[in-house]
Amino acid sequence: MNIKSTAIDGVKLITPTVYQDHRGFFAQTYQLAQYQKLLGENEPFVQDNYSRSNKGVLRGMHFQAQRPQAKLVRCTRGAIFDVVVDLRTDSATFKHWFGIELTEHNRLQLWVPKGLAHGFLALDDINDVEYKCSDYYHPQSEQTLRWDDPTIAIEWPQAEVILSDKDRDGLSWQQLFL
Predict the structure, then answer these.
(1) CATH assignment of 2-177, given 2.60.120.10, 3.10.180.10, 3.40.50.620, 1.10.287.1040?
(2) Residue 35 falls in the annotated catalytic set
(3) How confident is the model over 20-33, as pLDDT tens digits?
């Protein structure tokens, strides 16, 4: 397994070790002790989420204000443009965003620490995303930052997207931080 830092403080890009031969492949996608040692995190995951999205669906930018979640995200079918925005006011990368393409072929995983908004755009016809969370889903503390907020100016690979009502009605940066 290889871990690289990204442009956002604490966000890591993980390349799992893959064993491939004429039969197919094998990859260990998560092992608690190994991840705790390499990431320096001691919180086990308590919830696994799985979503399927059609091409053009944008989910995000989600976060839980009172009960923040760290996440380990991977795409198991198709391809997504995965994005995080740093909401931590004490962070050197506060208000910055980072995006990376996660695909079933590159098998990359994105470690998202607590205090970041997360979302993704589905790029293929069918896209499956799995992510582990360090805390339970808590609807009362969930918030959504607008995916197209001009203050953040995320450079999405396409402008035409399919949104849920909740994501369409997300809060602006000014509404969150003023």
Answers:
(1) 2.60.120.10
(2) no
(3) 999 998 888 887 77
